[in-house]
Amino acid sequence: MTVPVFEDRPETVRGRMLYQSLLAVHALIRRDLTTVERLAAAVQDGLPAEDVHEELGELKRNGMLWQFQVSCLSYCGFVHMHHNAEDREFFDELEETNPAIRPVVERLRADHRKVSDHLDAVEAAARALSEDESQPARRAVAEALEVLEGDLLAHLEYEELNIAGTARRLPDLPWMGPTSG
């Protein structure tokens, strides 16, 4: 008896649902990155520090990306919450389902730490702008936003491309009935 190649396994209802949910969350994060891009340009163009803080506050209240800022990687708002859930549950299950995905998961976990640091850097630069509205301080905020945007977009794309096959084949839960490939 030969063991079927992983990719020959059928997709599952649960796997497809989880992957579609991941794509939906990523779409919300990308939407917020559009706001981040606009804010970076406005800061460079002289947006007052008070308005920068107001815009960041609005993102934190209503934007999925900034709701990650609750407690750095454990529960720092939405992006941190999303990454934390992936790190603690989703990635482990991906590795159990397909051990060959381990290098991808290791990179994704490292990306999560990097994104968390970028979120912290944006907040620090915005706080510094309150004390110093000079062009270099403005440039620091814009650069922090641009670095966050670039790395986060690259992370989302890498994740979506590299976990799709495994995620869509995660086992169904017993209450879901038989797998429908």
Written description of the protein model:
- This protein has 181 residues and is mainly α.
- 72% of the residues lie in helices and 0% in strands.
- The protein has 5 helices and no strands.
- Helix 1 runs antiparallel to helix 5 and helix 2 packs antiparallel against helix 4.
- About 7% of the residues have low confidence.
Largest sheet properties: none
Structural class: mainly alpha
Over all CA atoms, what is the radius of gyration? 19 Å
The 3D shape can be described as: elongated
Strand content: under 5%
The number of distinct helices, counting runs of at least 4 residues, comes to 5
Order of helices and strands: HHHHH
Number of strands: 0
List keywords for this structure.
mainly alpha, 5 helices
What's this, in brief?
Helices cover 72% and strands 0% of the residues. With 181 residues, it is mostly helical.
What's the topology here?
Blueprint: H1 13-44, H2 49-62, H3 77-97, H4 102-131, H5 135-167
Helix pairs in contact: 1-2, 1-5, 2-4, 3-4, 4-5
